[in-house]
Amino acid sequence: MNESDLIARAAGGDAAAFGVLVRQNQSPLRGFLRRLTRTDYALADDLAQETFLEAWRKLSQYRGEGSFTGWLTRIAWSRFLMEARKRKPELMEDLPEQSIETSPDVALDLESAMRRISAAERAALTLCYALGHSNEEAAAILEMPLGTVKSHILRGREKLRALLEGGS
Amino acid sequence: MTADLDALLSKPLASVADDGFSASVARRALALQERDKLLDQLVLIVTAAIILAALPLDRIMAAIETVTVGLGNLFPVTIAFAALVLTASFTRLVVDRPE
């Protein structure tokens, strides 16, 4: 059964079809949320679960414009934003200098460096590179103007380059 | 360095093992569906109860009774009803007649 059949059946209340959709999409979605939450796995999984349940409730509203993965990721991003604004505002910003575990002249690996940049930069870079979305798709998912997404990507890349080369 | 960074960033995210996650979400989705159904039924029952409680049932029944008795006492209605009964009896007689 292909994805659109599964979506149609799940929208009609078929929980088994929905289970298959969750299985197919859980890995990239949880991976994305783990990056956003700075590898707080428990929080990422809670957000992933809420994302899927919201998708289950709103499945009849999915019109097939854009990919299903993109639609799910958009819900995940908005769930993450709500959580961060309510309880963990520090997730939105760059990590301050004093929270660096290594000295500024030591190069970091990509995941550690990713944890240091802002949420919007992490999201834009992850969507456009690791998850293979176009800039336009990323703008739709993040509900940001295209120019803003591009500048998040540019700024994020500059910060990562500095961090990976051992600067701060 | 730019090429290296691009390559690093383009590496797919590490695969996350399901470990019962999908099953747990599907279970919760099912429970949510059951709860929503139950809630819908409850809303229907409560609404019906409120409407019934608010309706002046005594007056409605009295009105129905008055209208029915009034209709029964009307000569044209009696004739029409009698014609209806006679037609039905005649039809039955024709249908049940042995060949």
How does this model look, in words?
The complex is a heterodimer of chains A (168) and B (99). In chain A, 67% of the residues lie in helices and 0% in strands. Chain A is mostly helical and 168 residues long. In chain A, helix 2 (15-36) packs across helix 3 (41-58), helix 6 (119-130) packs across helix 7 (135-142) and helix 7 packs across helix 8 (146-165). Chain A contains eight helices and no strands. Chain A is elongated. Chain A has helices at 3-11, 15-36, 41-58, 68-86, 110-114, 119-130, 135-142, 146-165. Chain B is an all-alpha fold and 99 residues long. Chain B is elongated. The N and C termini of chain B lie far apart (104 Å). At the A-B interface, helix 2, helix 3, helix 6 and helix 8 of A face helix 1 and helix 2 of B.
SSE layout:
The complex is a heterodimer of chains A (168) and B (99).
Chain A: H1 3-11, H2 15-36, H3 41-58, H4 68-86, H5 110-114, H6 119-130, H7 135-142, H8 146-165
Chain B: H1 2-10, H2 21-54, H3 57-73, H4 75-96
Order of helices and strands of chain B: HHHH
Our count of helices of chain A gives 8
Oligomer: heterodimer
Given the helix and strand composition of chain A, which structural class is it?
A: mainly alpha
- The arrangement of helices and strands of chain A along the chain is HHHHHHHH
In total, the number of strands of chain B is: 0
Mean pLDDT of chain B: 90
Distance between the termini of chain A: 50 Å
Number of helices of chain B: 4
Low-confidence stretches of chain B: none
What Rg of chain A do the Cα atoms give?
Answer: 17 Å
Content-based structural category of chain B: mainly alpha
Overall 3D form of chain B:
elongated
Specify the overall morphology of chain A.
elongated
Count of beta strands of chain A: 0
Q: Poorly predicted ranges of chain A (pLDDT <50, ≥5 residues)?
A: none
Estimated helix fraction of chain A: 55-70%
Q: Which key terms come to mind for this protein?
A:
heterodimer, A: 168 residues, mainly alpha, 8 helices, 67% helix, B: 99 residues, 4 helices, 0% strand, elongated
